[in-house]
Amino acid sequence: MNNINFNIILQFFALILIQVLVLNNINFLGYINPYIYILFIILYPVKNNRLLFIFLSFTLGLFVDIFSDSGGVHAASAVTLAFIRPPVLKFSFGMIYEHQTIKFSNTEFGNRLIYFTIMVVIHHLILFSLEVFNISNIILILKKTLFSSIFTILLCVLISVLFSKNQR
Amino acid sequence: MQQIINFVIRNKTFLLFLLLFGISLALTIQSHSYHKSKYINSANFLTGGIYESANSVSDYFNLKTQNTILVEENKQLKSLLYNKENTQSNWVLDSSNSNGRFKFKTAKVLKNSYASSKNYLNINKGEKDSIQQDFGVISSKGIIGIIDNTSRNYARVLSILNTKSQINAQLKSTNHIGSLIWNAKSSEYVQLTDISKFAPVKVGDTIVTGGQSSIFPQGILIGSIDTFELDISGDTYTVNVKLFNDMTNIGHVYVIENLDTEEIKSLETDTNE
Fold it and tell me: Where would I find the Rod shape-determining protein MreC beta-barrel core domain in this sequence (chain B) (predicted)?
């Protein structure tokens, strides 16, 4: 148990640092950035204390906000993502989730991809809507969401495949 | 009472979510509406320190370009100095004798962003170096932004690539003024609005800072006119300005302090009352 907690804390800080020092500076084609810090929320153990989980997600988002001077947009989208995770899990994994025996490294790739996609798209949609904060720029919001989502999903899948190999 | 407590316990997850979401939404709205967002900003010792140590590594990668920029600037200044019409033979550089209104300080950019709609820069000088809010920031090629938040060792700069930014600017050839804003579309272009329709606007003309603001000296370069069109009302031009600065690559900057700011401000408040 201690070991798992230590891993989670390590993941928390590593993801923040990677996000703000490396990924925020990519700016592919001028505006496309991956936001992989949500991998923490996506891969958090399913059996959890929900209050703590939501609070941790909020702190994670707030840290990214402080570093990137964006008010509270990351915090808002991260906390929403943490709150709606159970329904998304249920939708994408079905029965396995019901029995609470789910382990991300043991699930089928297709299911995992659906899960990642839904989570990332929801997060980015909230993030960019709040960041632009102007409904007349809806095309800009959708464009940013689409391209950044593709980038993020790609990176998330790669990272989760890389780091879960030895557990199989 | 019992029922209320029961309700709270039953819905504690949802209530916590609502609370945290509310907090972050408030922070977001605050960052959108006020000129100064006080609480959440990267000009503090933790984030500033982390950015500084990261920057000390990444600095080495663009030493070459920074050197070229410095040499270019030196060339410009030298040509200004020696082509002056009434050159004094005993030209003495004496910084203590500078009688100008403006004081310059150098600083290094630690963090720069240009992809979101609200962009800020972080520089490695703060209150310790007597830098305060509302000082102007320029580079050798042109305008960068305005200091908007300071801590002891660091300061945050509201970039001109920020939808909150609004800077007084004018045409170089005439004195028609307007205000410089950004529409968040491209990091190479900013927009100059409220230029009178009587102004002789031509593609390629230079835009400089206006003398009306107490932040920047008059005549600091901004960019050149790319396209322009009349407003819907037909009274003013909206001009698309191509920046001289490459906002995606900024190394060293100058912070401008206007020594007369307080005098100007007190004068303005006097007339308002």
Answer: 109-257
Number of A/B CB contacts below 8 angstroms equals 106
Contacts 24+ apart (CB under 8 A), B233-238: B234/B197, B235/B196, B235/B197, B236/B178, B236/B193, B236/B194, B236/B195, B236/B196, B236/B197, B237/B178, B237/B192, B237/B195, B237/B196, B237/B197, B237/B199, B237/B201, B238/B191, B238/B192, B238/B193, B238/B195
Domain ranges across chain B: 41-82+105-259
Which of A21, A65, A70 is nearest residue B54 as measured by Cβ atoms? A21
The closest alpha carbon to B48, from B131, B110, B105, belongs to B110
Alpha helices in B59-142 (DSSP H): 63-82
Which residues are paired to B120 by β-bridges? Answer: B158
Residue among B21, B114, B156 whose CB faces A80 most closely:
B21
pLDDT 10s digits, B201-227: 888 888 888 877 788 888 888 889 888
CATH superfamily of B41-82+105-259: Rod shape-determining protein MreC, domain 2 (2.40.10.350)
